Amino acid sequence: MIINLRRIFLFFVFVTFLNCNSKKNSESTESSNAKLQRIELLNLKMKIPNNYDKISSDYFSDILEKSIYRNKFTEFELKSMDRYRKFGSNAEIFVDNDDITNVIIFHGADYIKMSKEALELYIEMVDGNIFADAELKGIEYKRLEGEFLNYGLAEVVKVKFSQTYHQDESTKTYLTNYLVSHNLKSFGIIVINKENIDFQYVLDNFKL
């Protein structure tokens, strides 16, 4: 379990810093403002916000590189994106048409049965690695949630953080990581959003 969780953790690290200082929008958290879209790597349809479209990892990194949203730590973000490209064939990215720094990423993972034990191990990895490394770069993390969710057809570990650069509240971003086990398969969902929106309704299909 520890080895497989570490692989998921490394994937999360690669995309953790993919945010920029940009405008906020008034996007609704209601699932009625979502549509079913096919996630090819999962062979499933999931609820995705109406204003989100799928793009490739290469295209996403190109957008960031040319974006008007570039800020003090975008160069570090782009280095993370370069590493992330290696995982491109095992991930699908959806971006907000109104703000490209709002992102939902689905990625594959080795099978792990999610549980309260898995949650505790994952939080330990994140707290012991991301937090310490981020402080050296002037990035402050605060863990907001850490819980195990039983959806009936799936087991879910949910961990949410806020991220702020050099104590500048205008740079605050919210990062939510869902780890899901379903039908002897596992996958992850990473939500990066400028507001405290985690789109938990993407998991509604697993409710009994």
What does this structure look like?
A 7-stranded antiparallel sheet has the order 3-4-5-9-8-7-6. Strands 1-2 form a two-stranded antiparallel ribbon. The chain has one domain (2-199): Mog1/PsbP, alpha/beta/alpha sandwich (Protein Transport Mog1p, Chain A, 3-Layer(aba) Sandwich), CATH 3.40.1000. The protein has 4 helices and 9 strands; from the N terminus they run αβββααββαββββ. It has 208 residues and is α+β, with helices and mostly antiparallel strands. 28% of the residues lie in helices and 37% in strands. Mean pLDDT is 77; it is low at 17-28.
Structural topology:
Layout: H1 2-16, E1 34-39, E2 44-49, E3 52-55, H2 57-66, H3 74-85, E4 91-96, E5 103-109, H4 116-136, E6 139-150, E7 155-165, E8 168-182, E9 185-193
Antiparallel strand pairs: 1-2, 3-4, 4-5, 5-9, 6-7, 7-8, 8-9
Structure summary:
The chain is of the alpha+beta class and 208 residues long. The chain contains four helices and nine strands, in the order αβββααββαββββ.
The Rg value, from CA coordinates, equals 16 Å
What's the CATH H-level homologous superfamily? Mog1/PsbP, alpha/beta/alpha sandwich
Helix percent reads 25-40%
Order of helices and strands: HEEEHHEEHEEEE
Mean pLDDT: 77
Q: For this structure, what is the CATH class? A: Alpha Beta
Low-confidence stretches: 17-28
Secondary structural class: alpha+beta
Instruction: Describe the largest sheet.
Output: 7 strands, antiparallel
Strand order of the largest sheet: 3-4-5-9-8-7-6
| Separation, N- and C-terminal Cα atoms | 27 Å
Per DSSP E runs of 2 or more residues, the count of β-strands stands at 9
Taken as a percent bin, the fraction of beta residues is 35-45%
Name given to the CATH architecture = 3-Layer(aba) Sandwich
